[in-house]
Amino acid sequence: MRALALFSAALVVALVSCKSHKAVPLDKTEAADLPQAATLQKLREMLPTAEFVYCYAPKWTLKPTDISTWTVENDAVTIEHGKGNSLRLGFADITDVRLDASGKYYYVKVFTSVQPERDRPQFDFLFRIEERAKEVGELLLAMKKR
How many separate domains does the chain show? Predict the structure, then answer.
């Protein structure tokens, strides 16, 4: 009976720790000083290194192997996946970008005017490396302004 109680307590602690999100501040000043061409080039290099991409409007969960093409242009990021399926993140639609840490991942949360639920991001880009996630978040924030 005591072993069951200890196991239950350990399970509750593990579940709570997995679900806790910690906000990580983004410094948008450094990325804002970059020329637009350099910002776009860095996004072209760094976005494909995401471990997962979640889109909530429309709903998709993508692993790197599911994505056939990443296209970063002056006005948007387009993610081609599958037969004729694509997701688009317009820079003009971005309302906010936040970075959260949870478990072993860093979530770059991109909020847009396209997402019907304002308190929910349209895209989550998951990274295991904090610095990479921070840089992607800062670059997306910089593109929001332009």
Answer: 1
